[in-house]
Amino acid sequence: MHNNQTACLDGWHNNTELSVNIKTMMRSEKRMKTGKEYQGVLRRDSDAIDDEFLCRDAHFTFIEVEPWSTKRNPRVFNGKFISITRRDDGSLRLNFKPRPETMSIDYYAFEVYREIRNGLNGLVEK
């Protein structure tokens, strides 16, 4: 099962990678610890090859980065359709999440309106 379509047929999500090689470049430790979360960048270096004479798993590289001491634009509301972040100057920014393909634009707009109303409740002076 090297490609996502085959994996999807067997009950896996189509965004699940099976049988991959990962090289890690750690800053905090020599090896990753089980169950611990690390902040970093994951890069796909090569795709899987699966043909009659050659079988090679996809290859990724994970590079651990230093955690931010202060988070830029912290998220003050995270909904299903939008999130709201606060900028350094104190202003609020709306961030729209993708509309599900099966959802009509009218229903999406209505749900976005409801989340904006809920998210701004308490954030904006009356």
Supply the helix-strand structural class.
alpha+beta
How many DSSP E strands?
A: 8
Estimate the global geometry from the Cα principal axes. flat
How large, in whole angstroms, is the Cα Rg? 21 Å
Order of helices and strands: HEEEEEEEEH
Mean pLDDT value? 76
Fraction in helix:
10-25%
Beta-strand content? 25-35%
What is the distance, rounded to the nearest whole angstrom, between the alpha carbons of the first and last residues? 57 Å
Biggest sheet details: 3 strands, mixed
Task: Characterise the protein shown here.
There is one protein chain. The chain is α+β, with helices and mostly antiparallel strands and 126 residues long. It contains 2 helices and 8 strands, in the order αββββββββα. Strands 1-5-2 form a 3-stranded mixed β-sheet, with no helix packed on it. Strands 6-7-8 form a 3-stranded antiparallel β-sheet, covered by helices on one side. The protein is flat and about 50 Å long.
Draw up the topology in text:
Blueprint (H helix, E strand, L loop, with lengths): L3 H6 L10 E6 L14 E7 L2 E2 L4 E2 L1 E7 L10 E4 L3 E5 L5 E5 L8 H16 L6
How is this structure best summarized?
This protein is an alpha+beta fold. It has helices at residues 4-9, 105-120, and strands at 20-25, 40-46, 49-50, 55-56, 58-64, 75-78, 82-86, 92-96.
Characteristic terms for this protein:
disordered N terminus; 17% helix; three-stranded mixed beta sheet; alpha+beta; flat; single chain; 2 helices; 126 residues; three-stranded antiparallel beta sheet
